[in-house]
Amino acid sequence: MANNFLTKLTSKGIDVVAGKVTDTVIQGLPNELVPTGVSDKTSKKTTATAQADDFRVRIRPKPGRESSIYGPRDKSSLMLPLYNTGGVLFPYTPTISANFSVEYGVISPVHSIMDFYAYMRTPSPEFTISGQFSAQNTREAEYCLSVIHFFRTVTKMYFGQDSYKGTSIPIGLSPPVLLLNGYGTYMLNNLPVIIKNYTIELPNNVDYVKVNLQAPSTSAGVLIQINQLIHQPHLAMLKKG
Asked: In whole numbers, what is the pLDDT of the chain averaged over residues?
């Protein structure tokens, strides 16, 4: 049995999306991926009800963008497991810290015993998320590999044969705006984020699990650190509908 490995995610700048988001029904983790002692509360319900009942932390594409990020919904897609979990789902409850700030300009009159502060702007808040993923069998290793490939994908513009003329995705399109969910309506509720950078570490103190795919075999079971998700409010408004 492989050792558990930690996954750390740092997010920077998240804001709320106006209005409700219609999405496909979110399924829970496959039984093989549900950690011992953790109950899977998600069932086949309407999206609104499923999201209200599911407090787990999840990063996912916007509705309708799944196939452009995950690829086809068949065994040829390395990110096929993410279809079943509605995005990157943290199987263990992560630790989340949030930092909010306000910027003021300082006015310092001559011959005065105090400064005057003028409001300038409120920058995007910063979130830090630290969680665990485990790769104790092939199914869990496949999921971990999907998560790694997901973050590789969403930090690059669209290029190559998948963006060739005749497709719906133009070459040079910026990395996608994602949605962050967790802990219900009044916490992390469909918050639009973009990923600024991430780091993957391959430690020497974990047991790697071999994953057999249609593509050449790859090993998974690594310590991943993903850094700085930053929100760009104007990006979320580029396209509606």
From this structure: 69
Burial 64-102 (b: 16+ CB within 10 A, else e): eebebbbbeeeeebbbbbbbbbbbbbbbeebebeeeeee
Q: What is the pLDDT of residues 55-65, one digit of tens each?
A: 888 888 888 87
pTM for the whole structure: 0.64
Structure token pair of residue 129? 């998320």
CB neighbour list of residue 135: distance below 8 Å, 6 or more residues apart: 2, 4, 5, 141, 144, 206, 208, 209, 220, 221
Contacts 24+ apart (CB under 8 A), 184-189: 184/52, 184/55, 185/52, 188/14, 188/57, 188/96, 189/16, 189/51
Domain edges within the chain: 5-237
Which amino acid does the sequence have at 118? A
Q: How many residues comprise the chain?
A: 241
Q: Counting beta carbons within 10 angstroms of the beta carbon of residue 156, is it exposed (0 to 12), middle (13 to 18) or buried (19 or more)?
A: exposed
Could you give phi then psi for residue 54, rounded to 5 degrees? Answer: -95, 110
Longest dimension (CA), the chain: 76
% residues pLDDT > 70 (the chain): 62
Q: What's residue 7's pLDDT?
A: 35
